[in-house]
Amino acid sequence: MTGCRPGQALAVRWRNIERQLAIEAALSGDEIVDRTKTEADRAVPTLKPLLADLAALRELSGDSPDDFVFRTPSGGHWVETDWRNFRSRHFVAALERVEAEWERWREGLADTDGVRESIAGLAKTRPTTLGATLTRR
Predict the structure, then answer these.
(1) How many domains does the chain have?
(2) Which letter does DSSP use for residue 68 in this model?
(3) How does pLDDT run across 93-126, given as a tens digit for each residue?
(4) How far is the C-alpha of 45 from the C-alpha of 48, rounded, in Å?
(5) Is residue 1, in this structure, part of any structural domain at all?
(6) Structure pTM?
């Protein structure tokens, strides 16, 4: 919902979220470093539903402003291998399930105008291009 690159999203700390998302960092090699790809900070408008979800998550987590928003299941900071493993083990598997159930789900809609008939090949989509893939006609 923000257009962040994965490394940028994984580097976001709670202090970076207000009415917009401050992007201060990007993934570089195996570690998160304190700069964006262009080495310039930027701010991204953040949709109200995302802000509400993040506020609820922060309240449940009890995190400090300097804690990372996204952490590994063990609570550590994501590195390149964590991202690659997530993509192959979870992201692709979830998209494969969506592909398999798409037609049944679509048939259950009252109005199918504007909803793709098929999403064959969705599981080959990269996480950074998923939004464009689902909205393209």
Answers:
(1) 2
(2) B
(3) 888 999 999 999 989 999 888 888 888 888 887 7
(4) 9
(5) no
(6) 0.58
